[in-house]
Amino acid sequence: MRHATGISDLGVEGLEKVLAQAIQWKQGPHPKHLVDKILGMVFFNPSLRTRASFEACMARGGGSSIVLEVGNGVWKLEDRAGAVMDGDRAEHIREAAPVLSRYVDVLAVRTFAGNTDDAEDHKDPVMNGFRNFATVPTLSMESAREHPCQGLADLMTARETFGTTKGLPVTLSWAPHIKPLPKAVPNSFLLTAAAAGCEVRVAHPKGFELQPEVQAQAEALAKEAGGSVAFTQDLDEAVKDSRVVYAKAWGPATGGPLGPEAVKAFPAWMTSPEIMAKAAADAIFMHCLPVRRNVEVADGVLDGPWSRVVDEAENRFHVQRALLQWLLEA
Amino acid sequence: MRHATGISDLGVEGLEKVLAQAIQWKQGPHPKHLVDKILGMVFFNPSLRTRASFEACMARGGGSSIVLEVGNGVWKLEDRAGAVMDGDRAEHIREAAPVLSRYVDVLAVRTFAGNTDDAEDHKDPVMNGFRNFATVPTLSMESAREHPCQGLADLMTARETFGTTKGLPVTLSWAPHIKPLPKAVPNSFLLTAAAAGCEVRVAHPKGFELQPEVQAQAEALAKEAGGSVAFTQDLDEAVKDSRVVYAKAWGPATGGPLGPEAVKAFPAWMTSPEIMAKAAADAIFMHCLPVRRNVEVADGVLDGPWSRVVDEAENRFHVQRALLQWLLEA
Amino acid sequence: MRHATGISDLGVEGLEKVLAQAIQWKQGPHPKHLVDKILGMVFFNPSLRTRASFEACMARGGGSSIVLEVGNGVWKLEDRAGAVMDGDRAEHIREAAPVLSRYVDVLAVRTFAGNTDDAEDHKDPVMNGFRNFATVPTLSMESAREHPCQGLADLMTARETFGTTKGLPVTLSWAPHIKPLPKAVPNSFLLTAAAAGCEVRVAHPKGFELQPEVQAQAEALAKEAGGSVAFTQDLDEAVKDSRVVYAKAWGPATGGPLGPEAVKAFPAWMTSPEIMAKAAADAIFMHCLPVRRNVEVADGVLDGPWSRVVDEAENRFHVQRALLQWLLEA
């Protein structure tokens, strides 16, 4: 039985297979490949694109969806082994995951990082709880560690634009925000771009380093796929010749000198037309959305010729139905 | 590409077409006219009838629905151009509308009036934001200005009962309430009845005038359709010979002498059997629901022989599937 | 027109028919018996299993579901006749139930006990409001008085395991909890087991008696079905030779000496491997879920050889589609 809670479930081979299927299906009529299938979606956190695009995948494919929002019409869930459950969590994942598995064909989960303890987030307890106790394929709709569907949509967008991603120079640029956001999206862009063979450059102010384990995983994937990964605090240097500029806000590294109040302290990191002008002449701009205009990214970039953010969001739909196919065909 | 965010999108011709289709389809088995279609519904405000009836339209027609509740499992949305988005609105309609358009075939939006600034409400910024930035047909499920599906259901009910609405005397009667409610429903009853050729009488206490622009629009529609529009503060005079009494609470005109606390100051305006007895002998009673019993309308009216409120609510289903057809056939 | 808001709607004959259908359908492919049918679900309280299993029933059967959460995107509902509706309840069941009946084929309602007044709860005003004013079959997803779908799933699980439930010794064991929970689930296990001919033993500490009317109803059903019902405060005596141990927390009898703070005062009533060892050698353990581990039931029982809690939850799906069939075939 396959799961898809992180890039390591797919590997380079699975990634290539899913991207090829997604690009192929985008050209033709919607395949009815999900007839009689039910996707169960469990949200611990809000969503717009993820929920709508997965519901569209199921409906277009001939199947259906069940959406459950934990703590909002659904009990809060416990994930700790051996817990004496006398608090506000009324049900354990040890029951919820196998029970839901009896009703649906695939179980998708969204659970954001607590964002106060990188080591704890790295263990991804809720997502791994579902993965361990579910008896059907489990799919991440973003967890504390990764957002694999986003990474797939990002790389599909780059590949559509440039034909290939082998050796493609791409920059992941840290962006300012009013909150210290989770690292799942930057992790997944980095990991997926590395697995797709890109020349990946990650640029961020000092103190916003991604976790060492993720950096190491990206380097291993790049090596396997024939690409490279580099980290820098010099944004101008990073974007030079880049074909993709990918902006994303995330919080400081745990234990770093930066608190949440410092997150807006780097206004020069807001992606502007001036920054885009330093990239390759045919460079495109991407962002996972939602984006805070004129905080993370200037209006001029989002409304300008570089932006692929709407295509990128549409590609969530395409990669997700390819990923559902990959999960169910095993 | 067609939109349906107000009566002006339909005009007298579209109105007649949608009503005729709705009345015809009500007689037979459900047409499977929405196979493979997805309706995306975005709610900024609560709903019972609207949500359930639209979901039923899609299911009965062979299609499906995606329901998103903004601020309840979905990010809050920004609508202002050029905003520096450092507040609680995490996403701009400039992204949300085109992105959702990639997943669905029709985008329906509910967004109530702020009800503190008539001029601002009249601009209908959220509904018009979706309409401007969506790339699929946009449908109003009630906005700050109009509730076109309700107006269509109201006129369908009148036409079913009396065969024709040309020259039909109908009274829109202001009703007391504990809150200063939005004006979208009275606006839409007035505008749709005018466009259907009724002799429309609007009765309300002094200080509860509808916006001048809406009054002018209603007069123009009445002229085109061969009907008339009149405004009065004398309820007895208005209901005399009326075949339809339509009760609805709404808040005071901006800048008027009446604050919210005065809204209950007119108990004589609660529709009672005594008022219905002053109308035509075959008069029917309508209300869009939800209705506060014994505040807006007496039990004796709602449970009496005049009431068509449940048929009227059923007709939401019928006019909406006809409206979806009208949007998609263009 | 049939309803299913309590065991008395089914009777012994209906119960046997539904259980037989559920067990038969579990063996084969999903029957497409709900094509073009819509289930409307109205939740006044949270749910995980109930919502997911009913949505799965409709999807697997070829139909669809509409889910409405009262007070969460849907107006609060009034149930009292003659109410002057000037509070926070914006709509009356007298409108909501007949209106929803125009959109859907079956109306399912979840409304928990207020749990402060046993006599009021016993009248089940919300569930009976829907039942009285709906014009389509009404189904309980748990009300103040009963949870018939849970009782059916429980007895299906026992019958699957032991072949027959005639004369089967089963124990309903009160369990500790941090809150005084409603009595719908224990009521329904008692009533359904009695109607299925079991030898039912109900064990609880002094002060936690079930309502006299429910006890009397259970005794009448047991007499009709050839079983028996007994009540005891001696758990060891109850579980001796029992083939089923069914744990469930519920609050004290109204007017009893026990307040909510005393609910955890009986830790020896937590079902443990030691208690299971006193039951029959082939005894199974059941619980309706959600279960608070190490408060109501020890990890060793839930993770041990006795537990059927996941099968029992799966059987919610099977009995519910049989019950939908029973409602619609009449």
UniProtKB/TrEMBL annotation, chains A, B, C:
Span of domain Aspartate/ornithine carbamoyltransferase carbamoyl-P binding: 2-160
MF-aspect GO terms: amino acid binding; ornithine carbamoyltransferase activity
Coiled coil: none
Domain Aspartate/ornithine carbamoyltransferase Asp/Orn-binding: 185-327
SUPFAM superfamilies with a match to the protein in the record: Aspartate/ornithine carbamoyltransferase
BP terms from Gene Ontology: citrulline biosynthetic process; L-arginine biosynthetic process via ornithine
Pfam families: OTCace, OTCace_N
Classification via InterPro entries: Asp/Orn_carbamoyltranf_P-bd (IPR006132), Asp/Orn_carbamoylTrfase (IPR006130), Asp/Orn_carbamoylTrfase_sf (IPR036901), Asp_carbamoyltransf_Asp/Orn-bd (IPR006131)
Keyword terms, alphabetized: Transferase
Family: Belongs to the aspartate/ornithine carbamoyltransferase superfamily.
Protein name: Acetylornithine carbamoyltransferase
Source organism of the structure: Mesoterricola sediminis
